[in-house]
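Honest question from a wet-lab person: if I give you the sequences of every part of a complex, can you actually get the arrangement of the whole thing, not just the pieces? Trying it with mine:
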Amino acid sequence: MLEVRGVRKSFDGFVAVNDASVSVARGQIAAIIGPNGAGKTTLFNLITGHLRPEAGAVVLEGRDITGLPPHDVCRLGMGRSFQRTNIFPRLTVYQNVQAAFLSHRGRGLDLWSRVDELYRGETEALLASLGLRERAGEVSGFLSHGAQKQLELGIALASEPSLLLLDEPTAGMSVSETRETIRLVERIARERGLTLLFTEHDMEVVFSIAQKITVLHQGRVIAEGAPADVRADAEVRRVYLGERR
Amino acid sequence: MRAPWELALLAAALLVPALGSRFYTFLANDVLIWALFATSLNLLVGYTGLVSFGHAAYFGIGAYTTGLLMKKLSLPFLIAFPAAGVLAGGFALLFGFFCVRLTRIYFAMLTLAFAQIVWAICFKWNEVTGGEQGMPEIPYPSLDWMGRLPLVGGLRTSDHFYLVTVVLVALCLWVLRRVVGSPFGRMLTTIRENAERAEFIGVNVRRYELAAFVLAGAFAGLAGGLFGIFNRGVFPDFAYWTKSSEVLIMTLLGGMGTFYGPALGALALILLNQQIVSYTEYWPFVLGTILIVLLFVFPGGLAGAAGTALRRLRRAA
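Yes, you can. This is the full assembly:
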């Protein structure tokens, strides 16, 4: 499904991601973990086209997407959420999700139809599955942090992606919000047959849902495999899991 | 024009010449054209989140286009007026292509730079634009047919032109209103709210910004086309940066958060100017004071303040 081959990116001489390779199979739930500054978000940005790798390639379903701009990557079936919550704050919850439907279905250059009723059914159904149906009319910037994260997931899902990238989906959430969100993500991934790649700092979350884990340290992949293997990996224990004890 | 109050306003505008005052009709005509100009700018400032400091360029290009075609080539208004929109939109496409590659202050500075180039060309190209002297005596459109109509037949030519302005501005505003209420308009607001996120719902941000820039330029051009005739002459200062700032002030004063805010701003600024200039020569001083109060007390502009007041009244009732 997704093949990242030896990508590299540096900022002013600091190598943030160095020769990193990650692969995700169709239908898999995969996680990228690593200490702060390991290059997780940079790697995400390389995959989604927000950054251009200096070396290496990103291949989505057999197609080389290296260097494509984000809006094209999005159209090819990749959705993403951002670490810092990324919504349209002065639009309503409904408008946030509807906008993604409009864009995805190619209606964006329609200058004449009245926008309000377009894709109402789809939008409301998606909001319902996220538990946001009752809040559809609220201005999204006033929602709680957890609800905004859920809304962001909704925006990503409205593009009907086959591969979904979530950058720290539970960042800044309380324990109960985290649990709720993870259950939601897992359920939606299953229902929609999504392939999921996420980064996460909460190890409990990672080991509870990921089928495959890639460990990043100082921009390099130091381990990759099933959760049990990664947990047992000596190198990982030393640089990462060990640090947390 | 769905809502009845919009129709009522249109009817009221059409009745202004019936007051019989040349001055009121003149004032109303001025307001209408600036209202269209400010509303076109708001497509960028209020809806797309792009602050243009050079919107007068397209106003000027439109004015010169209509003026040249009608005065030098004696073409009818029916061709010269749409041509203003087409040419202004064309230049907006050319300049906008470069502008949308920059963001924020750099975008604003580049729009200003292009506008100053337009102004310099108008100022210096004597053979075509009349240079510094401008192009006086732009003819009125031939509106003799209106003289044969009942009710309006007896009015002056300037009143006839005013009625044409009312109809054309109403049409343009109706089109713009449809555009901002369309899926395209919604995409523009997603760019304003969060361009990074907009990219990742599949919006080609630059292309949409350019489309908005061209539309805004085209409608500014139409406003300019009307203004040259209304003003009985076209002058280089139409494209000067002070015009760009004037229209930006109207937009902010009226409120960029609502569709009719900028039009309200045009009305308020022109009436204020009219009133205050008759008392004091320190109009810029008064304007500055108004702006300071506005920015601190009513950041949503007049329309924003009115909306808040209305909601409070409703809650109290």
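Two things worth pointing out. Residues 175-192 of chain A form the longest helix (18 residues). The mean pLDDT of chain A is 90.
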